[in-house]
Design goal:
single chain; mainly alpha; 3 helical TM bundles of succinate and fumarate reductases; binds protoporphyrin IX containing FE; SQR/QFR_C/D; Succinate dehydrogenase; iron; SuccDH_FuR_B_TM-su
């Protein structure tokens, strides 16, 4: 079966409800995107504890693992996993449906009105998915960490970023996060019906400001370790 036939079959299998419609799945992408960007923003703020030293950072990590008698982190993990799963499902099925609707493709790609970030959403999203798996194996399970100590998240943070290749991958992944977030924040407000010429510059400003803040601060972490500022 060709890609087009597979996706037509998939679209038929999805039926005619809200989630089968492309608008419904765009709303799913927007709502789950907000949950994920919200997490990334809070996570970036939480990690600033690293600038306050080992005691603060380890106390913060300990709080995350023990809140609500250890159940809190599992509530967050289930929400994040569900949001990420639905986000990828909506992205993949929308892409397949678009291909099925236009199996031959445009002879010359028209980029009018699009940005580099919007055209590369599938690439930045895929690199982010790879990064998230690596990141969990690096700092949560320690599987790919050079000397992981479950009792000392601060030491894991510092020793993890002392490896230049790891620090470099984090920086590249944060640049992809920036592209994904900049277009994603802009576009989710559109999917939720908040676009209006009067508010467009506000939406653009919000997307740019939040992205620069999250990516800018996140990139400082590996650089601060390599520069010996966090040690
Ligand atoms: C340079 C930027 C980042 C740093 C320094 C960082 C640092 C960390 C650290 C140290 C942990 C482990 C905490 C612990 O075990 O106590 C962690 C967990 C995690 N991080 Fe990040 N992170 C960064 C960016 C990101 C990004 C961009 C995402 C998502 C796109 C992300 C998603 C997660 C997730 C899902 C967890 C696992 C939470 C859990 O235990 O379930 N991180 N991060």
């Amino acid at each position: 079966m060709s890609v087009a036939e597979q996706s037509i079959a998939g679209a038929e299998a999805r039926g005619h409800g809200f989630l089968a419609s492309s608008v419904g799945r765009k709303v799913v992408m927007a709502v789950t995107g907000i949950v994920l960007f919200g997490f990334v923003t809070v996570h970036m703020i939480g990690n600033t504890q690293a600038y306050m030293g080992a005691e603060h950072f380890n106390a913060y990590a300990h709080f995350l693992k023990t809140m609500l008698h250890g159940g809190g982190i599992w509530i967050f993990r289930s929400i994040l996993l569900t949001a990420a799963g639905l986000h990828v499902w909506a992205a993949v099925t929308l892409t397949l449906d678009n291909r099925a609707a236009r199996p031959v493709g445009y002879r010359a790609q028209q980029n009018v009105g699009s940005t580099f970030a919007s055209r590369t959403m599938r690439w930045s999203g895929t690199i982010l998915a790879v990064f998230i798996v690596y990141h969990l194996l690096h700092f949560t399970t320690g599987t790919v960490h050079p000397n992981f100590d479950p009792a000392n998240p601060y030491a894991n943070f510092v020793n993890g970023f002392k490896v230049p290749a790891a620090a470099g991958f984090y920086i590249v992944a944060q640049l992809c996060l920036g592209l994904h977030m900049w277009h994603g924040v802009w576009s989710c407000t559109q999917s939720l019906g908040l676009s209006h010429p009067r508010y467009d510059s506000l939406r653009r400003g919000f997307a740019t400001g939040l992205t620069l803040l999250v990516v800018g601060v996140n990139i400082t972490y590996p650089i601060a370790v390599l520069a010996g500022i966090i040690h």
